[in-house]
UniProtKB/TrEMBL annotation, chain A:
Highest taxon of the lineage: Bacteria
Source lineage: Bacteria, Pseudomonadati, Pseudomonadota, Alphaproteobacteria, Rhodobacterales
SUPFAM superfamilies, A to Z: Thiolase-like (SSF53901)
One family name in Pfam for this protein: Thiolase_C_1
Record's protein name: Thiolase family protein
GO molecular function per UniProt: acetyl-CoA C-acyltransferase activity
From TrEMBL, chain B:
InterPro entries the UniProt entry points to: ChsH2_Znr (IPR022002), NA-bd_OB-fold (IPR012340), NAD(P)-bd_dom_sf (IPR036291), Thioester_dehydratase-like (IPR052513)
Short name of any one Pfam family annotated for the protein: zf-ChsH2
Signal sequence bounds: none
TM segment ranges: none
PANTHER family: BLR3430 PROTEIN
Keyword GTP-binding: no
Gene3D superfamilies in UniProt: 6.10.30.10, NAD(P)-binding Rossmann-like Domain
UniProt keyword annotation of Endoplasmic reticulum present: no
Key words, A-Z: Plasmid
Listed name of the protein: ChsH2 rubredoxin-like zinc ribbon domain-containing protein
Domain ChsH2 rubredoxin-like zinc ribbon, chain residue ranges per copy: 21-54
């Protein structure tokens, strides 16, 4: 199936609200601060933003509409995307179509969450009905155990070993070094990785993302709008989303990316070889491995060898998770699904500073969200290009 | 003292159906009546054909361990206190032979990619959990015993050891060597029973002293008092007496099991015995409340619903009757296996099945 390409839709103004391990502030604070950042970055008046797309786990009892009131925004278009780590890609797709159709002129896409001590437990206990009924009662609060079982299966199915995952974690931490926004910047070695304590074997502490508070946001508008306002921007070439893909696979070993990569690259007019930098959704290394394989950078089961054979640093032969990814930056709830987009936007608009990928033109970002009791349900990917 | 941590209790309405089957010691999963797809976790609607007509069906407890993890860290206090002590808590994804993939507690002797035997039991919070064990019997896994740690092993009280049923339970408990066995009585006890090793006669007509005498209890076996036929007396013996005793014992019941010997009439009234049937139904309703109360401390309530019993004086009555030692044995085994509702004989199981499919036809001569 072919997908209609996006015409003249751009992203601008990457904003990251500084992350904190814990915060006494609510989600509205982080999301509102991201909006304030978007206005400051763009020079727009609040009334000029007429669309809002928001993602959050901790905004309850509000959804987007309660937030509009709280932020004093008036909108002609509003969406609330409850898709966790896939919400960035999906928000971008929806916002792009709204802008294309003229339903909105300038859409603010924002994801943000707070994190109170104990709050993560509350959220995971009620994450979904399947999780509540089939995972939480066996002690597997949070996604660690579910991803551990996916990791265990992957290791036995494809012969992967701990070192394969460790290399990715070490490389990402090295990438985080120059990123002032990363909460974890101290370099780690493969020995550190292997010695880190078991959390839910085979998942170790250094496989796990750290929940934190924070927000990410960007603006979506027509190219002419960005040019008229002099806003640095990048183009949306193509994006896909697919939910509950391969539901019959007994254990997840591929995601919806595998079903969509050909249409994605065809719509973008490029190939995996044409990608200058890649931001995977890195909640656990095994999921990054699935993305490397399903998006066509290597064959199924070969991600470990691929990581070992490449330099993943910004100046390496395969720049990946150039800001350190969620693994080192922290996972600010739904904002984790936006992190790859804001990082790529910075890279493609020449604002990645010390992390800059030289001459980067094409960036690929993927998202993955909503773990049920045994697998993640939502997948998405987007190809962005420098203006 | 703060309440002990328990496994999480929050469940959806469909998932409580799994708990209901676990309580009966069945291995049942939800199945679509239209397309036959087996569902897990329990659903409101068939994920294959969208039929809303799902039923619970006993299925073969056979599966295959697809993937596993050993949990060393948990967000939940109950598991925090146990994961990693003495060993990580083992969980796995098991593919049931129907194709459904289940999250299970996994016995230490199971092998990844190997076959497993499944069972459904209740955890310390009284909720359903799935166990995967090796096909062949293996040594007890300490992790699995921690999940359903209410065994009743320890000091026990039989509410009325002067009755034949009470005496049978007292003998069974003494034979298992489980702590001191308090023999409740309000009249003369069988001297051989009262003098047995481990037996402690206890006058329960003085309720105020009972708690001080017994100290913490692991198990109370509540047996029906001698019924005399009128509604008032049946209610007094079958419902009010245990309710008063439970209230008096409340300070020593934390984490304990309360095993109530009722009768199948608690579920399926016998038109020939209206007063005992009504009293048993009342006792059943009260027991449901006690179960909720006890679950807050990790304790549990077990209802036993036998058909006709082989009581002295009934030797010449026609029809199958359950021997008292067999009743006691089955009930104590049920307690250890996490069963909460026991139908220990063919008559009770038959009546329960009839009542489930034909409701009020049973009792109208049908």
């Amino acid at each position: 199936m072919s997908r209609a390409a996006f015409r003249d839709v751009v992203l601008a103004c990457p904003v990251s609200v500084p992350y904190a391990r814990f915060s006494a502030r609510g989600a509205q604070y982080f999301i509102g601060t991201a909006l304030r950042g978007l206005l400051a970055e763009s020079g727009l008046e609040k009334r000029e933003v007429d669309g809002l797309c928001v993602s959050s786990f901790s905004l309850y009892p509000d959804s987007g509409i309660g937030l509009l009131r709280a932020l004093g925004l008036q909108a002609t278009w509003l969406d609330t995307i409850p898709l966790g780590g896939a919400s960035g890609i999906v928000a971008l797709r929806r916002a792009a179509r709204a802008v294309e159709s003229g339903d909105a002129g300038i859409v603010a896409c924002i994801a943000g969450d707070t994190c109170a001590p104990g709050g993560f437990r509350e959220a995971t206990a009620r994450f979904s009905q399947a999780s509540q009924d089939a995972v939480y009662p066996v002690g597997a609060g949070g996604p660690n155990a579910s991803f551990a079982m996916i990791t265990d299966h992957y290791m036995r199915r494809f012969g992967a070993v701990a070192e394969d995952f460790g290399r990715l974690c070490v490389a990402q931490r090295a990438n985080a070094g120059p990123n002032p926004r990363a909460l974890l910047r101290k370099p780690i070695t493969l020995e550190d990785y292997l010695a880190s304590r078991p959390i839910s074997a085979p998942v170790r502490l250094l496989d796990c993302v750290m929940p934190c508070a924070g927000a990410e946001g960007f603006l979506v508008m027509r190219r002419g709008e960005a040019e008229a306002r002099g806003l640095p921007h990048c183009h949306l070439l193509a994006a896909t989303e697919r939910h509950n893909a391969y539901a019959d696979d007994p254990v997840q070993e591929r995601g919806g990316w595998a079903a969509d990569r050909e249409t994605l690259f065809a719509a973008a007019g490029t190939t995996p070889a044409g990608v200058d930098l890649f931001q995977s959704y890195d909640d656990y290394p095994v999921i990054s491995f699935l993305q490397l394989e399903d998006l066509g950078f290597c064959a199924k089961g070969e991600a470990g060898a691929f990581v070992a054979a490449h330099d993943l640093s910004p100046t390496g032969d395969f720049p990946m998770n150039t800001g350190g990814g969620q693994h080192s930056t922290g996972q600010a709830g739904a904002a984790g699904g936006f992190l790859g987009l804001t990082e790529t936007l910075r890279q493609l608009t020449g604002r990645a500073e010390e992390r800059a990928v030289p001459g980067a033109r094409i960036g690929l970002v993927s998202g993955f969200g909503m773990i049920a009791y045994d697998r993640g349900l939502s997948c998405g990917a987007a190809v962005l290009a420098a203006a | 003292m703060s309440a002990p941590a328990l496994p999480p209790r929050l469940r959806s309405a469909p998932a409580l159906g799994l708990t209901a089957r676990a309580a009966e010691g069945r291995f049942a999963l939800q199945e679509c009546t239209e397309c036959g797809a087996v569902q897990y976790p329990p659903q409101e609607i068939c994920a294959a054909c969208l039929s809303g007509d799902l039923r619970w069906r006993d299925v073969a407890p056979k599966g295959h361990l697809l993937a596993g993890t050993r949990l060393s860290h948990s967000l939940e206090p109950f598991f925090q206190a146990r994961a990693g002590r003495p060993a990580p808590w083992r969980l796995g994804l098991v593919r049931h032979e129907s194709g459904a993939v289940l999250t299970c507690f996994v016995h230490a002797a199971c092998v990844e990619d190997g076959p497993v035997r499944l069972s459904l039991t209740t955890d310390r919070a009284g909720m359903a959990c799935l166990l995967a064990q090796p096909e062949q019997a293996a040594e007890e896994d300490p992790m699995l015993t921690q999940i359903a740690a209410v065994t009743g092993r320890g000091p026990a009280l039989v509410t009325d050891a002067t009755t034949p049923v009470g005496a049978a339970f007292a003998r069974a408990l003494l034979a298992r060597g489980a702590g001191p066995v308090w023999l409740g009585h309000g009249g003369p006890l069988d001297p051989a029973l009262a003098g047995a090793e481990g037996a402690r006669p206890l006058d329960i007509s003085a309720l105020a002293d009972v708690v001080e005498m017994t100290g913490p209890l692991a198990l109370v076996v509540s047996v029906p008092g001698p019924g005399t036929g009128t509604l008032e007396e049946e209610m007094a013996a079958t419902c009010f007496a245990p309710a008063r005793l439970a209230a008096a014992l409340a300070p020593v019941l934390a984490g304990a099991a309360w095993l109530a010997v009722l009768g199948i009439e608690a579920r399926v009234p016998d038109p020939a015995r209206p007063a005992p049937s009504a009293a048993l139904a009342a006792a059943e309703a009260w027991l449901t409340g006690l179960r909720e109360t006890l679950s807050a401390s990790g304790g549990r309530a077990i209802g036993v619903y036998p058909g006709p019993l082989a009581l002295p004086g009934t030797e010449e009555v026609a029809g199958p009757r359950l021997a008292l030692p067999a009743l006691a044995r089955a009930a104590l085994d049920a307690l250890e296996s996490g069963v909460q509702e026991l139908f220990p004989d063919p008559v009770s199981r038959h009546l329960l099945a009839r009542a489930a499919t034909e409701g009020k036809a049973v009792g109208r001569g049908a």
